[in-house]
Design a protein that fits this description.
The complex is a heterodimer of chains A (364) and B (262). Chain A has helices at 45-53, 95-105, 110-123, 139-151, 169-186, 197-203, 221-226, 231-236; strands at 5-16, 19-30, 34-38, 60-65, 68-69, 80-83, 157-161, 189-194, 206-211, 214-219, 240-250, 256-260, 263-267, 276-282, 287-289, 296-308, 311-317, 323-328, 342-346, 352-357. Chain A has 364 residues and is α+β, with helices and mostly antiparallel strands. In chain A, the strands form 4 sheets. Chain A has a 6-stranded mixed sheet, sandwiched between helices. Chain B contains 11 helices and no strands. Classes of the chains: A alpha+beta (364), B mainly alpha (262). Chain B: It is a multi-pass membrane protein.
Chain lengths: 364, 262
């Protein structure tokens, strides 16, 4: 795949009042891609975005935009625009003037501005809203105006800081689809910030998982979900069982064999016999049933079932006292087995992924 | 269960308003009384006629107006500059500096008046409009400073950042975004300052010159001869103006709110 780099961050460090906010961010963003920075609040994702926008300057490191070092440029000189979390619509200007603001600053002729504003309103599905004041709009409409105000300037990169955070669930889903449609239609590079994993998985071409000022893992949604490289990534996205196991060797099929939960389990990855490793196992990948099947190497009993709409969650107890959380419907879960039922448990070895060498501290 | 109806709350309100407005009502009534004495002798406009032909009072009124416009205007510029300069910045002693900028409101006027008097004497500035404007501007600044500071603090910093992000220079951000948004607070601060300057007696008393009696000073000196119905008429005119201004401001505000919608 031929990809042109539009933006790169090189070893960005930033502290606020001696508190490290970013510790060495390296990130390459390609033209036209939808990249999401995903992480809990305080992980540094907003700071990263503000450094790209030029609203903060890094203590160390460079920001390269379209091949030019813009680290020391004022935000008004960079060809990037931001959609702020609070929308930041100018309350004293109507929708039309809000959207036109960037164009006016660049001295675009009046008729041209009018035409482009009209087009933008059409694009964000708010035709005829030009005269309204921001206070007369609903949250979703403000959101659209904020997006229109940014993309009318045809930025090389559009930065979006949790743009859907203030909307209710239904509207958020609808806007996710719309944002993705806009991004594909316009071909603008999106750098998107969210703490909502579902949003990230739905919309992104690539996701960067951030925690404590670092990017822990960067990859496609599938890579991030199926092959988390850290315990944090495994637990932050989706639901995982974190297993503390010890490598025993390899089976005939080349899978890693480990001792865990009073039996032998299979996983993918590398390991020396006797080595302690931490595994992540997605809850929906666990299979169990009354009868043993191919690859069912553990046994245990059903502790309890939780029904939650489209999902059934079951807790299984292993002979050694460990518990496995299982989620899913139909396939693999043979109806609802009552608590206390003795079951056989297994999974596709590819689904158990080593996320850490050694075991996490007991204290954690 | 029905609650027993009590009229106590209404009584409180009526009592409060009565206490507040009874003396004022008396002044208004006497301004239309056809005698200089305290009994009611019939309705007349003659005191108003006399008032509007009293050149001393008219001069004093224009002195006061000029003084209030100049000093609240100058204070608006100084106070806004101070508040904008301090906003969004952190430096050692900022809190102390902000405190110092507002303390003059709490200093007794008599002390301020004496301070201005000795300061201007020391500099040998002739007493008159210049010293009045200087003194009034000084005590007006805090009203604007406090108002604008509060309004700047409630301003979403993302607004300025958004303008910057859209390509505005820092100067454009101030004139396009910050200034229009803090304008109402500059206006309300200035109106307050205007009112303060308009009715100031104590400070003006210390720094006025022979030619520049302000309206409150004029009223004060006329009172030494006794309360004349002419003064009552003057008070009534001023009261009427104040009520009109307040009502106008209210209407303006509710119209703005209605325009903002929902």
């Amino acid at each position: 795949m031929e990809q042109e780099v539009i933006l790169s961050l090189e070893n960005i460090h930033k502290s606020f009042d001696g508190q490290k906010a970013l510790c060495g961010i390296d990130l390459t963003i390609y033209k036209g891609e939808f990249l999401t920075l995903l992480g809990p609040s305080g992980c540094g994702k907003t700071t990263t975005l503000r450094i790209i926008a030029g609203l903060e300057s890094p203590d160390e490191g460079r920001v390269i935009l379209g091949g030019t070092d813009v680290t020391d440029w004022e935000p008004n000189k960079r060809g990037v625009n931001t959609v702020f979390q609070s929308y930041a619509l100018f309350p004293h200007m109507n929708v039309e003037n809000n959207i036109a603001y960037g164009l006016k600053l660049r001295k675009v002729p009046k008729e041209e501005i009018k035409k482009q504003v009209e087009e933008m309103l059409e694009l964000v599905q708010l035709p005829g809203f030009g005269e309204r004041m921001p206070s007369q709009l609903s949250g979703g409409q403000r959101q659209r105006v904020a997006i229109a105000r940014a993309i009318v300037n045809k930025p090389s990169v559009l930065l979006l800081d949790e743009p859907l955070g203030a909307l209710d669930l239904q509207l958020r889903r609808q806007m996710q689809v719309e944002l993705k449609r806009l991004q594909q239609k316009l071909g603008i590079t999106f750098v998107y910030i969210t703490h909502d994993q579902e949003e990230a998985l739905n919309m992104s071409d690539r996701i960067g998982i951030m925690n404590q000022g670092k990017i822990l893992q960067l990859g496609t949604p599938e890579e991030i979900y199926e092959h988390p490289k850290s315990r944090f990534a495994a637990q932050f996205i989706g639901q995982s069982n974190i297993l503390k196991a010890t490598v025993t060797g390899r089976d005939a099929a080349g899978n890693l064999t480990l001792s865990f939960g009073g039996g032998t389990i299979l996983a993918s990855g590398q390991g020396e016999p006797g080595e302690k490793v931490t595994l992540s196992l997605r809850t929906e990948r666990v299979r169990y049933g009354r009868e043993p099947r191919q690859g069912f190497t553990l046994s245990g009993q059903v502790k309890n079932n939780h029904y939650s709409g489209g999902m059934m969650r079951t807790v299984l107890t292993l002979p050694t006292g460990e518990e496995l959380l299982v989620s899913g419907m139909g396939d693999g879960i043979e109806g609802r087995l009552p608590a206390g039922t003795q079951v056989h448990i297994g999974w596709d070895p590819a689904c158990a992924v080593i996320v850490e060498r050694g075991w996490p501290d007991e204290a954690e | 269960m029905r609650k027993k109806r009590t009229f106590l709350p209404e009584t409180y309100v009526v009592l409060m308003l009565l206490l507040m407005y009874l003396p004022i009502f008396v002044v208004v009534a006497y301004s239309f009384n056809d005698t200089k004495l305290f009994h009611w002798a019939g309705f007349t406009f003659s005191w108003y006629q006399k008032l509007f032909h009293n050149q001393t009072i008219i001069n004093a009124f224009f002195n006061s107006l000029k003084l209030a416009v100049l000093s609240s205007g100058l204070a608006a510029i100084l106070g806004t500059m101070g508040a904008v300069g301090m906003a969004g910045r952190t430096f050692f002693g900022k809190g102390a500096l902000e405190g110092l900028s507002t303390v003059p409101i709490m200093i007794p006027e008599i002390i301020l008046g004496m301070a201005y008097l000795s300061f201007f004497s020391l500099l040998q500035v002739p007493f008159g409009m210049l010293t009045l404007v200087a003194a009034h501007t000084t005590f007006c600044v805090p009203y604007i400073f406090i108002n604008v500071k509060a309004s700047l603090q409630s301003l979403d910093p993302a607004l300025g950042e958004a303008a910057l992000d859209l390509g505005a220079s820092r100067r454009r951000v101030f004139f396009d975004i910050t200034a229009p948004l803090i304008f109402p607070s500059i206006l309300s601060g200035s109106l307050l300052a205007f009112a303060m300057s308009m009715d100031d007696v104590v400070i003006s008393f210390f720094v006025t010159g022979p030619e520049t009696a302000t309206l409150p000073l004029q009223v004060y000196s006329m009172l030494k001869m006794g309360v004349t119905p002419e003064i009552n008429a003057l008070c009534t005119v001023m009261l009427g103006t104040v009520f009109l201004l307040v009502a106008g401001a209210r209407l303006f505000q509710s119209a703005r709110k209605a325009k903002k919608g929902r």
